[in-house]
Amino acid sequence: MEPKAYHRIFGIVLDSVGTGAAPDANLFNDQGADTLGHVGEAYQGELKIPNLQRMGISNLREHEILGVPKVNRPLGYYGTMQEVSAGKDSMDGHWEMMGLPVTKPLDTFPHGFPDDLIKKIESFSGRKVIGNRPESGTKIIAELGEQQIETGDLIVYTSGDSVLQIAAHEEVISVKELYRICEYVRSLVNGPTYTIGRVIARPYVGPDKAHFVRTANRHDFTLAPIGQTDLDYLNEAGIQTIGIGKINDIFSGHGISIGYHNESNMDGMDHVDEVMKKEFTGFCFTNLVDFDAMYGHRRNPIGFGKALMDFDKRLGTVLKSLRENDLLMITADHGNDPGFRGTDHTRERVPLLAYSPSMKMNGNLGNRQTFADFGATVLDNFNLKNHAIGTSFLEELVRTGEVK
Questions:
Q1: Residue 15 in marked binding region
Q2: Has 297 been labeled as part of a binding site?
Q3: Same structural domain, 241 and 386
Q4: 402 lies in a domain?
Q5: Is 345 annotated as a binding residue?
Q6: Exposed, middle or buried: residue 322 (CB in 10 Å: 0-12, 13-18, 19+)?
Q7: What is the pTM for the complete model shown?
Protein backbone atom coordinates (compact mmCIF):
# COMPACT_ATOMS: atom_id res chain seq x y z
CA MET A 1 0.00 0.00 0.00
CA GLU A 2 1.59 3.28 -1.13
CA PRO A 3 1.58 6.03 1.53
CA LYS A 4 -0.01 9.37 0.64
CA ALA A 5 2.91 11.49 1.80
CA TYR A 6 5.35 9.96 4.27
CA HIS A 7 6.95 6.52 4.08
CA ARG A 8 7.90 6.57 7.74
CA ILE A 9 6.25 8.30 10.71
CA PHE A 10 8.09 8.64 14.02
CA GLY A 11 5.83 9.48 16.95
CA ILE A 12 7.59 10.35 20.21
CA VAL A 13 5.57 10.66 23.42
CA LEU A 14 7.29 12.73 26.10
CA ASP A 15 5.53 10.99 28.98
CA SER A 16 3.82 13.59 31.24
CA VAL A 17 5.10 16.74 29.45
CA GLY A 18 1.86 18.70 29.63
CA THR A 19 1.49 22.30 28.50
CA GLY A 20 -1.15 23.78 30.79
CA ALA A 21 -4.44 22.86 32.43
CA ALA A 22 -7.06 21.31 30.14
CA PRO A 23 -10.53 22.89 29.90
CA ASP A 24 -11.92 20.13 32.17
CA ALA A 25 -9.04 20.29 34.70
CA ASN A 26 -11.51 21.32 37.43
CA LEU A 27 -13.10 17.85 37.22
CA PHE A 28 -9.74 16.42 38.32
CA ASN A 29 -8.86 19.15 40.85
CA ASP A 30 -6.02 20.17 38.54
CA GLN A 31 -6.79 23.85 37.96
CA GLY A 32 -3.52 25.73 37.59
CA ALA A 33 -1.42 22.73 36.55
CA ASP A 34 1.21 23.61 33.93
CA THR A 35 4.10 21.17 33.61
CA LEU A 36 6.18 23.06 31.02
CA GLY A 37 5.38 26.45 32.54
CA HIS A 38 6.40 25.50 36.05
CA VAL A 39 9.58 23.74 34.89
CA GLY A 40 10.55 26.94 33.07
CA GLU A 41 9.87 28.98 36.21
CA ALA A 42 11.99 26.61 38.30
CA TYR A 43 14.89 27.26 35.93
CA GLN A 44 14.35 31.04 36.23
CA GLY A 45 14.66 31.47 32.48
CA GLU A 46 17.65 29.15 32.03
CA LEU A 47 15.80 26.20 30.48
CA LYS A 48 17.66 25.58 27.21
CA ILE A 49 15.69 23.49 24.71
CA PRO A 50 16.58 25.08 21.35
CA ASN A 51 15.33 22.25 19.13
CA LEU A 52 11.93 22.04 20.80
CA GLN A 53 11.88 25.84 20.73
CA ARG A 54 12.38 26.05 16.98
CA MET A 55 9.70 23.40 16.52
CA GLY A 56 7.28 25.75 18.29
CA ILE A 57 7.06 24.42 21.86
CA SER A 58 6.30 27.94 23.19
CA ASN A 59 4.25 29.05 20.18
CA LEU A 60 1.46 26.65 21.11
CA ARG A 61 0.93 28.39 24.47
CA GLU A 62 -0.86 31.58 25.42
CA HIS A 63 2.15 32.48 27.57
CA GLU A 64 5.56 31.38 26.38
CA ILE A 65 7.71 29.16 28.57
CA LEU A 66 10.08 31.28 30.69
CA GLY A 67 13.44 31.30 28.92
CA VAL A 68 12.02 29.68 25.78
CA PRO A 69 10.65 32.54 23.61
CA LYS A 70 8.25 31.96 20.76
CA VAL A 71 9.82 31.84 17.31
CA ASN A 72 8.65 33.77 14.26
CA ARG A 73 9.09 30.87 11.85
CA PRO A 74 8.71 27.47 13.51
CA LEU A 75 10.41 24.55 11.84
CA GLY A 76 7.09 22.87 11.00
CA TYR A 77 3.61 22.74 12.48
CA TYR A 78 2.63 23.15 16.12
CA GLY A 79 -0.50 22.90 18.23
CA THR A 80 -1.99 21.20 21.26
CA MET A 81 -4.32 18.29 21.94
CA GLN A 82 -6.82 17.80 24.75
CA GLU A 83 -8.10 14.51 26.08
CA VAL A 84 -11.65 13.18 26.02
CA SER A 85 -10.95 9.97 27.94
CA ALA A 86 -12.38 9.62 31.43
CA GLY A 87 -8.94 9.31 33.07
CA LYS A 88 -5.49 10.86 32.90
CA ASP A 89 -3.27 7.78 33.03
CA SER A 90 -0.72 6.74 30.41
CA MET A 91 -3.00 3.97 29.20
CA ASP A 92 -5.89 6.40 28.65
CA GLY A 93 -3.67 8.84 26.76
CA HIS A 94 -1.98 6.31 24.49
CA TRP A 95 -5.17 4.38 23.75
CA GLU A 96 -6.91 7.61 22.80
CA MET A 97 -3.99 8.61 20.55
CA MET A 98 -4.55 5.32 18.75
CA GLY A 99 -8.28 5.87 18.32
CA LEU A 100 -9.62 4.10 21.42
CA PRO A 101 -10.67 6.66 24.05
CA VAL A 102 -11.52 5.28 27.49
CA THR A 103 -15.04 6.57 28.03
CA LYS A 104 -15.88 4.71 31.26
CA PRO A 105 -13.76 5.53 34.33
CA LEU A 106 -11.64 2.61 35.48
CA ASP A 107 -11.56 1.68 39.16
CA THR A 108 -9.41 3.71 41.52
CA PHE A 109 -8.71 2.97 45.17
CA PRO A 110 -8.21 6.13 47.26
CA HIS A 111 -8.46 4.10 50.49
CA GLY A 112 -6.39 1.09 49.38
CA PHE A 113 -7.47 -2.20 47.82
CA PRO A 114 -10.31 -4.30 49.26
CA ASP A 115 -9.57 -7.21 51.59
CA ASP A 116 -10.79 -9.90 49.19
CA LEU A 117 -8.31 -8.79 46.51
CA ILE A 118 -5.42 -8.53 48.99
CA LYS A 119 -6.16 -12.00 50.41
CA LYS A 120 -6.06 -13.52 46.92
CA ILE A 121 -2.67 -11.91 46.28
CA GLU A 122 -1.35 -13.22 49.59
CA SER A 123 -2.72 -16.71 49.01
CA PHE A 124 -1.25 -16.99 45.50
CA SER A 125 2.16 -15.54 46.38
CA GLY A 126 2.51 -17.08 49.86
CA ARG A 127 3.59 -13.61 51.01
CA LYS A 128 2.06 -10.95 53.21
CA VAL A 129 0.98 -7.65 51.67
CA ILE A 130 2.14 -4.44 53.36
CA GLY A 131 1.40 -0.83 52.50
CA ASN A 132 -1.89 -0.99 50.59
CA ARG A 133 -2.56 2.72 50.26
CA PRO A 134 -2.13 5.56 47.76
CA GLU A 135 1.47 6.71 48.01
CA SER A 136 4.53 7.88 46.12
CA GLY A 137 6.56 4.85 45.05
CA THR A 138 9.88 6.23 46.27
CA LYS A 139 8.35 7.25 49.60
CA ILE A 140 6.68 3.91 50.35
CA ILE A 141 9.80 1.95 49.34
CA ALA A 142 11.92 4.14 51.63
CA GLU A 143 9.43 3.54 54.44
CA LEU A 144 8.79 -0.20 54.01
CA GLY A 145 11.74 -1.45 51.93
CA GLU A 146 13.87 -2.61 54.84
CA GLN A 147 10.89 -4.49 56.31
CA GLN A 148 10.26 -6.05 52.91
CA ILE A 149 13.88 -7.25 52.74
CA GLU A 150 13.62 -8.82 56.21
CA THR A 151 10.22 -10.50 55.75
CA GLY A 152 9.86 -11.09 52.00
CA ASP A 153 6.53 -9.25 52.04
CA LEU A 154 5.04 -7.51 49.00
CA ILE A 155 4.74 -3.73 49.05
CA VAL A 156 1.41 -2.94 47.37
CA TYR A 157 0.36 0.62 46.67
CA THR A 158 -1.63 2.77 44.25
CA SER A 159 -2.03 6.41 43.15
CA GLY A 160 -4.80 8.66 41.91
CA ASP A 161 -4.83 6.63 38.69
CA SER A 162 -6.20 3.16 38.03
CA VAL A 163 -3.03 1.29 38.98
CA LEU A 164 -1.96 -1.48 41.35
CA GLN A 165 1.78 -1.42 41.95
CA ILE A 166 3.86 -4.13 43.62
CA ALA A 167 7.39 -3.33 44.80
CA ALA A 168 9.98 -5.90 45.88
CA HIS A 169 13.75 -6.01 46.30
CA GLU A 170 15.32 -7.96 43.42
CA GLU A 171 17.56 -9.96 45.77
CA VAL A 172 14.60 -11.01 47.94
CA ILE A 173 11.98 -11.67 45.28
CA SER A 174 13.37 -12.32 41.82
CA VAL A 175 12.11 -10.26 38.91
CA LYS A 176 10.74 -13.46 37.39
CA GLU A 177 8.70 -14.24 40.50
CA LEU A 178 7.47 -10.65 40.80
CA TYR A 179 6.30 -10.76 37.18
CA ARG A 180 4.52 -14.07 37.85
CA ILE A 181 2.67 -12.51 40.78
CA CYS A 182 1.74 -9.44 38.73
CA GLU A 183 0.46 -11.63 35.89
CA TYR A 184 -1.82 -13.38 38.38
CA VAL A 185 -3.05 -10.06 39.77
CA ARG A 186 -3.69 -8.89 36.21
CA SER A 187 -6.05 -11.86 35.79
CA LEU A 188 -8.05 -10.67 38.83
CA VAL A 189 -8.66 -7.10 37.69
CA ASN A 190 -9.95 -7.38 34.14
CA GLY A 191 -13.57 -6.88 35.30
CA PRO A 192 -16.34 -7.02 36.04
CA THR A 193 -15.77 -6.83 39.83
CA TYR A 194 -12.60 -4.77 39.53
CA THR A 195 -11.28 -3.16 36.35
CA ILE A 196 -7.80 -1.68 36.78
CA GLY A 197 -5.82 -0.08 33.99
CA ARG A 198 -2.31 -1.21 34.94
CA VAL A 199 -0.65 -3.65 37.31
CA ILE A 200 2.96 -2.49 37.62
CA ALA A 201 5.94 -4.52 38.82
CA ARG A 202 8.34 -2.17 40.64
CA PRO A 203 11.62 -3.96 41.45
CA TYR A 204 14.20 -2.06 43.45
CA VAL A 205 17.75 -2.61 44.74
CA GLY A 206 20.00 -1.17 47.43
CA PRO A 207 21.20 -2.08 50.90
CA ASP A 208 19.02 0.33 52.92
CA LYS A 209 16.44 3.10 52.64
CA ALA A 210 19.10 5.72 51.99
CA HIS A 211 20.21 3.85 48.87
CA PHE A 212 17.07 2.18 47.45
CA VAL A 213 16.75 2.67 43.69
CA ARG A 214 13.96 1.39 41.45
CA THR A 215 15.37 -0.50 38.48
CA ALA A 216 14.67 -0.57 34.75
CA ASN A 217 13.02 -3.99 35.24
CA ARG A 218 9.72 -2.21 35.81
CA HIS A 219 7.00 -3.88 33.76
CA ASP A 220 3.45 -2.67 33.11
CA PHE A 221 0.80 -5.39 32.85
CA THR A 222 -1.89 -3.38 31.13
CA LEU A 223 -5.55 -4.06 30.58
CA ALA A 224 -5.79 -5.48 27.05
CA PRO A 225 -7.33 -2.97 24.63
CA ILE A 226 -11.12 -3.28 24.76
CA GLY A 227 -11.36 -2.77 21.00
CA GLN A 228 -9.20 -2.40 17.93
CA THR A 229 -6.70 0.42 17.85
CA ASP A 230 -5.03 2.24 14.99
CA LEU A 231 -2.00 0.01 15.60
CA ASP A 232 -4.17 -3.03 14.82
CA TYR A 233 -5.45 -1.46 11.60
CA LEU A 234 -1.91 -0.60 10.49
CA ASN A 235 -0.61 -4.05 11.36
CA GLU A 236 -3.46 -5.82 9.58
CA ALA A 237 -2.77 -3.75 6.45
CA GLY A 238 0.85 -4.89 6.40
CA ILE A 239 2.23 -1.56 7.65
CA GLN A 240 5.12 -2.17 10.04
CA THR A 241 4.52 -0.91 13.58
CA ILE A 242 7.46 -0.50 15.95
CA GLY A 243 7.01 0.17 19.68
CA ILE A 244 9.81 1.67 21.75
CA GLY A 245 9.61 1.88 25.55
CA LYS A 246 6.42 0.96 27.36
CA ILE A 247 4.34 1.11 24.15
CA ASN A 248 4.32 -2.69 23.95
CA ASP A 249 3.13 -2.93 27.57
CA ILE A 250 0.42 -0.30 27.17
CA PHE A 251 -1.14 -2.14 24.23
CA SER A 252 -0.40 -5.63 25.62
CA GLY A 253 1.53 -6.32 22.42
CA HIS A 254 -1.56 -5.85 20.23
CA GLY A 255 -0.76 -4.34 16.84
CA ILE A 256 3.00 -4.18 17.46
CA SER A 257 5.34 -5.77 14.88
CA ILE A 258 8.57 -5.16 16.84
CA GLY A 259 9.03 -3.98 20.42
CA TYR A 260 12.05 -2.49 22.22
CA HIS A 261 12.34 -2.19 26.01
CA ASN A 262 13.88 1.03 27.35
CA GLU A 263 16.31 1.26 30.25
CA SER A 264 16.01 5.07 30.26
CA ASN A 265 15.12 8.03 28.06
CA MET A 266 18.59 7.97 26.53
CA ASP A 267 18.35 4.23 25.88
CA GLY A 268 15.01 4.91 24.20
CA MET A 269 16.60 7.54 21.97
CA ASP A 270 19.34 5.04 21.11
CA HIS A 271 16.56 2.76 19.86
CA VAL A 272 15.03 5.62 17.87
CA ASP A 273 18.41 6.28 16.24
CA GLU A 274 18.73 2.57 15.47
CA VAL A 275 15.28 2.36 13.88
CA MET A 276 15.88 5.51 11.82
CA LYS A 277 18.75 3.69 10.08
CA LYS A 278 16.47 0.81 9.04
CA GLU A 279 14.70 0.46 5.71
CA PHE A 280 10.98 0.15 6.40
CA THR A 281 7.64 1.71 5.61
CA GLY A 282 5.50 2.24 8.68
CA PHE A 283 5.02 3.82 12.08
CA CYS A 284 7.51 3.93 14.95
CA PHE A 285 5.81 4.82 18.27
CA THR A 286 8.08 5.76 21.21
CA ASN A 287 7.41 6.50 24.87
CA LEU A 288 10.05 8.19 27.03
CA VAL A 289 8.94 7.60 30.62
CA ASP A 290 11.70 9.21 32.73
CA PHE A 291 9.99 12.63 32.77
CA ASP A 292 7.03 10.99 34.53
CA ALA A 293 8.55 8.22 36.64
CA MET A 294 11.77 9.93 37.72
CA TYR A 295 10.73 13.57 38.07
CA GLY A 296 7.00 14.26 37.72
CA HIS A 297 5.78 11.90 40.42
CA ARG A 298 8.71 12.92 42.61
CA ARG A 299 7.88 16.61 42.14
CA ASN A 300 11.39 17.43 41.00
CA PRO A 301 11.22 20.33 38.48
CA ILE A 302 15.00 20.67 38.23
CA GLY A 303 15.45 17.01 37.31
CA PHE A 304 12.50 17.30 34.92
CA GLY A 305 14.11 20.25 33.16
CA LYS A 306 17.46 18.47 32.93
CA ALA A 307 15.70 15.51 31.29
CA LEU A 308 14.05 17.90 28.81
CA MET A 309 17.39 19.45 27.93
CA ASP A 310 19.00 16.02 27.54
CA PHE A 311 16.17 14.97 25.23
CA ASP A 312 16.48 18.20 23.25
CA LYS A 313 20.12 17.41 22.47
CA ARG A 314 19.11 14.00 21.14
CA LEU A 315 16.27 15.60 19.20
CA GLY A 316 18.90 17.54 17.27
CA THR A 317 20.33 14.25 15.99
CA VAL A 318 16.85 13.00 15.04
CA LEU A 319 16.09 16.16 13.08
CA LYS A 320 19.35 15.80 11.12
CA SER A 321 18.65 12.10 10.45
CA LEU A 322 15.13 12.54 9.06
CA ARG A 323 14.74 11.60 5.41
CA GLU A 324 12.76 13.67 2.92
CA ASN A 325 9.75 11.37 3.20
CA ASP A 326 9.87 10.98 7.01
CA LEU A 327 7.48 12.70 9.42
CA LEU A 328 8.29 13.37 13.08
CA MET A 329 5.47 14.06 15.55
CA ILE A 330 6.15 14.88 19.21
CA THR A 331 3.45 14.89 21.87
CA ALA A 332 2.65 13.74 25.43
CA ASP A 333 0.05 11.51 27.09
CA HIS A 334 -0.91 13.72 30.08
CA GLY A 335 0.75 16.14 32.48
CA ASN A 336 2.65 15.51 35.71
CA ASP A 337 3.43 18.98 36.94
CA PRO A 338 6.47 18.88 39.25
CA GLY A 339 5.49 22.32 40.56
CA PHE A 340 1.97 21.23 41.55
CA ARG A 341 0.43 19.73 44.67
CA GLY A 342 0.30 15.98 45.26
CA THR A 343 2.22 13.36 43.27
CA ASP A 344 -0.34 12.30 40.66
CA HIS A 345 -0.72 12.98 36.94
CA THR A 346 -2.29 16.30 36.02
CA ARG A 347 -5.08 16.88 33.48
CA GLU A 348 -3.41 19.08 30.86
CA ARG A 349 -3.34 19.81 27.21
CA VAL A 350 -0.33 18.26 25.50
CA PRO A 351 2.04 19.60 22.84
CA LEU A 352 1.70 18.59 19.21
CA LEU A 353 4.80 19.27 17.10
CA ALA A 354 5.18 17.98 13.54
CA TYR A 355 8.07 18.29 11.10
CA SER A 356 9.32 16.74 7.87
CA PRO A 357 12.25 17.90 5.72
CA SER A 358 9.78 17.90 2.82
CA MET A 359 7.59 20.62 4.35
CA LYS A 360 7.43 23.87 2.42
CA MET A 361 5.34 25.78 4.98
CA ASN A 362 4.80 26.01 8.71
CA GLY A 363 1.74 26.82 10.74
CA ASN A 364 -0.60 26.36 13.68
CA LEU A 365 -2.57 23.12 13.99
CA GLY A 366 -4.73 24.71 16.68
CA ASN A 367 -6.07 22.94 19.71
CA ARG A 368 -7.15 19.48 18.65
CA GLN A 369 -10.26 18.34 20.49
CA THR A 370 -9.04 14.77 21.04
CA PHE A 371 -5.76 12.89 21.17
CA ALA A 372 -7.30 10.61 18.51
CA ASP A 373 -6.38 13.18 15.83
CA PHE A 374 -2.82 11.87 16.17
CA GLY A 375 -3.69 8.32 15.12
CA ALA A 376 -6.21 9.49 12.53
CA THR A 377 -3.36 11.33 10.79
CA VAL A 378 -1.18 8.22 10.79
CA LEU A 379 -4.01 6.14 9.29
CA ASP A 380 -4.75 8.79 6.68
CA ASN A 381 -1.10 8.84 5.63
CA PHE A 382 -1.22 5.10 4.91
CA ASN A 383 -4.58 5.34 3.09
CA LEU A 384 -6.49 3.56 5.84
CA LYS A 385 -10.00 4.33 7.03
CA ASN A 386 -10.36 6.16 10.33
CA HIS A 387 -12.65 4.16 12.64
CA ALA A 388 -12.65 6.58 15.58
CA ILE A 389 -13.59 10.12 16.53
CA GLY A 390 -10.28 11.64 15.45
CA THR A 391 -9.78 14.06 12.57
CA SER A 392 -6.67 13.83 10.40
CA PHE A 393 -4.49 16.92 9.98
CA LEU A 394 -2.38 15.30 7.25
CA GLU A 395 -3.60 17.72 4.58
CA GLU A 396 -2.25 20.65 6.57
CA LEU A 397 1.16 19.00 6.88
CA VAL A 398 1.56 18.32 3.15
CA ARG A 399 0.51 21.74 1.86
CA THR A 400 2.66 23.20 -0.88
CA GLY A 401 3.48 26.84 -1.23
CA GLU A 402 6.25 29.30 -0.61
CA VAL A 403 9.28 27.99 1.15
CA LYS A 404 9.16 29.16 4.76
A1: yes
A2: yes
A3: yes
A4: no
A5: yes
A6: middle
A7: 0.91
